[in-house]
Amino acid sequence: MAVTPPAAPSAPAPALAASPARGAVRAAAPAPPPAAAFTAPPPAAVSGPVVSPAGSGDRGGGVVRLAGPVPGALAHRYAALPPPLRVALAALRLEVLLGDPRDAANPYSLPALTSAPAAAGSAACAGSAASAASAGAGEGWDGRAGVLLTAAGLGQVCAADQRVRALRPLLRRDLALGHAAGRWGGPGMPPARRVRGQDGESCPVSSPVPAALLGPAALVAAAGSVLRQAALTVAGRGSGEPALRQWQPVLAAAFADLLACESLTCVALRRPAAPGPGAGPGPGAGLLGAVAGYVVPTVLADVLAQLGLVLAECGHGPASTGGGMLAKLTGDLPLAGVDAAGAAHWQARLARALPALAAEEPRTAHRGPLPAPFRLADPPATAPAGGVAAAGGQEGGHTPDGHESGRLAPDGHTPGGLEPGGYGVGGDSVVLSGLLRAGAARADGADGADTGRAALGALARRLLTEQRALRRPCRTAGADPGAVAARALADRQALLWLAAAVLGVREAADDGRGLFLGGTHWALLALSGIAGRLGVPLPGPAPDPRVPVWAELADRVRRGVDCDVYATRLLW
Fold it and tell me: Whose CA, among 71, 112, 537, 565, lies 20 to 30 Å from 138?
């Protein structure tokens, strides 16, 4: 069985050779363009991937070149926070199979996808891409997705967060296609069927990505593509058209909001699922999924509205690529369950859980190492016994990059305060609230010369005061979870947990390598936006983080780096 990909770009390049898993479909894939030549210095000197720009005359042509003795050198060049090697290879194969997003003749290109009807995007694209699958692969997009993803090697990637990373080339092109592909369970498996849980939410059976997080993860990636289109326009024409510079702070704030939403989604994806029905550790077991299911669509609705304004003011109407991407994305929101109705469902679930969650609030700041889900540079935590294997097909307790996985401390717990099953001690709400308290505590000990850290700590302390004020009303909110007051409390509490996730991910990334994710600017801008949504006044004068955040965004779009927390290199 062979996969016939879309037509290759006009400039041919050598093929990317990658062997699929045993029994998988071998793809006759087009090669990546010269911009995909990865050049890797020694890993110790790596602060981010270096890719030869298109037309730079790179002697290596379009092949992926590995330098140094480290087997995972390619993964280190793929992103500032590298994934396991087979995850990086699967993502590269998938990007190659999808073809050039700028080629209008390619059925998976942005012009072709945006021209399809919004609500029926996946069916329309599947019909136009009939050559992408052989006969007998199944009807509709689900069957063709299985062939495409098998050829890319996605069946070897079983951890939820790594599956989303490997799927990102598809997720960022089209929300509907990405959401459909996320339901794929693996080679030889039918598309994940949907079942109804006790709370009325549907969840996929056989897919490693939880249903509550599949839509938010796809929405974050798709919104990042729209942000890139807007930023490319403003960064490219800003020098010649000064009027466009007024949108730089708007796009910087949108970038920070996008990183905040992805931080929460990544933490939730990295948290192993419960081993079975009724086996959760307490009321906080499904907290992160519910928070992401509500917060991500709510916050990104504002972001998409701002991006629509920027694109319109820059002359990109619905007929343009950027305007068409935004219109298609907006039309696909109900299909992926990330519209207002989907957010309202998860808001109601949070409202019902507020009394129990308020009862387990900690009184002290989080101390010790950050829990494993916040350390995005580490391998994912092991899955519970009988669950899905973690770390994208680990073998012998190690990831393909040589990282240990599932290592237990002498006391029988995993590093970072997690039980062997992956549950945070005391529940998610305790960990998140403890991180908020820890961030507030650093306001007192911050170095006076480090204004960014001092401002971040002061803002965390202001948000902690808001959280303390919510404890008493949250204890009685469960009497009528459908009431307006209960939903308002759930909204405020979810935003506070979003702020805690930002603080945890930023602190974990602050490891001395100088990564943007470990800096204070994006976190300060994201927390400022959260405070604005809460109506909480900002504390005192603070440095304006929008200028450095915009500089990072403009630099990424010029260098071909994605707008994600991992700083992933784009192939096309």
Answer: 112
| pLDDT tens-digit series, residues 463-485 | 988 988 888 888 887 667 778 99
**Number of other residues whose CB lies within 10 A of the CB of residue 110:** 23
Phi then psi for 398, rounded to 5 degrees? -130, 150
pTM, full prediction: 0.78
Selected residue with higher pLDDT from 364 and 128:
364
- CA–CA separation, 142 vs 184, rounded Å? 7
Nearest to 223 by CA among 311, 107, 129, 289: 311
N- to C-terminal Cα separation, the chain: 27
Q: What percent of the chain has pLDDT over 90?
A: 37
From 90-99, 163-172, 414-423, 554-563, the region with the lowest mean pLDDT: 414-423
Q: Assess contact for 345 and 478: CB atoms under 8 A.
A: no
3 state SS of 24: coil
H or E segment and range at residue 158:
none
Residue from 148, 145, 144, 166 nearest 157 by CA: 166
Alpha helices in 446-520 (DSSP H): 451-475, 484-509
Report residue 36's pLDDT band, with 50, 70 and 90 as the boundaries: very low
Structure tokens of 498?
């979003």
> In this structure, which long-range contacts are made by residues 119-124, counting pairs with CB atoms below 8 Å and at least 24 apart in sequence?
119/331, 119/332, 119/334, 119/335, 121/174, 121/175, 121/176, 121/177, 121/328, 121/331, 121/332, 121/335, 122/174, 122/176, 122/177, 122/180, 122/335
Euclidean distance between CA atoms 465 and 437, whole angstroms: 10
Asked which of 280-284, 291-295, 445-449 is least confident by mean pLDDT, the reply is 280-284
What is the spatial distance between Cα 98 and Cα 151, in angstroms, rounded to a whole number? 11
Rounded distance between C-alpha atoms, residue 421 and residue 418, angstroms: 8
| CA–CA gap between residue 403 and residue 436 (Å, rounded) | 30
Q: Is the sign of the CA dihedral 388, 392, 394, 398 positive or negative?
A: negative
Taking the C-alpha atoms of residue 165 and residue 487, their distance in angstroms, rounded to an integer, is 32
CA neighbor of 178 nearest in space, from 216, 130, 150: 216
Q: What is the pLDDT of residues 325-351, one digit of tens each?
A: 999 999 999 989 999 999 999 999 999
Strands (E), 174-296: 193-196, 202-205
| The pLDDT of residue 533 | 96
Give how far Cα 518 sits from Cα of 189, 235, 435, Å: 39, 24, 16
Within 8 A by CB and 6+ apart from 357, the residues are 283, 284, 287, 427, 429, 474, 493
Beta bridge partners of 193: 205
Q: For 141-145, 297-301, 430-434, which range has the lowest pLDDT when averaged over its residues?
A: 141-145
What is the rounded CA–CA span in Å between residue 85 and residue 168? 15
